[in-house]
Amino acid sequence: xxxxxxxxxxxxxxxxxxxxxxxxxxxxxxxxxxxxxxxxxxxxxxxxxxxxxxxxxxxxxxxxxxxxxxxxxxxxxxxxxxxxxxxxxxxxxxxxxxxxxxxxxxxxxxxxxxxxxxxxxxxxxxxxxxxxxxxxxxxxxxxxxxxxxxxxxxxxxxxxxxxxxxxxx
Length: 169
Fold this sequence. Notes:
This protein has 169 residues and is α+β, with helices and mostly antiparallel strands.
């Protein structure tokens, strides 16, 4: 019985591995990654399965999880990426965030609040930069920069806020 459990444990441990990225090719229809596994094992051109609607290209040194189906280490797929060097910390339970290594972020916070942090915000050709701000009927929209594009973004957003308030959404 102990031998059977030990063998099962070895098989399960070979099915997945925590890996470190050495390089990424994001020019194909799917990303290929070169990784380092435990015990100096390396794999090149592994496929990264990304969630629908989301994509990112990680820096070398990011941590991933790789799966090797059927105990076959010759063909695996990478399924998850983490890079603790750039992770947003101190989120409250239920909050969601996306971020870059440059400090850009969008946070979906408690109380139905969306917080975006960036130097330049560009929406359909309307750009707003640091330190431009405007107060629309009690709702303050801070674009911490000067407005280098048309002001329609702020006007459009204020109209949307007024509409949502009138609908009591």
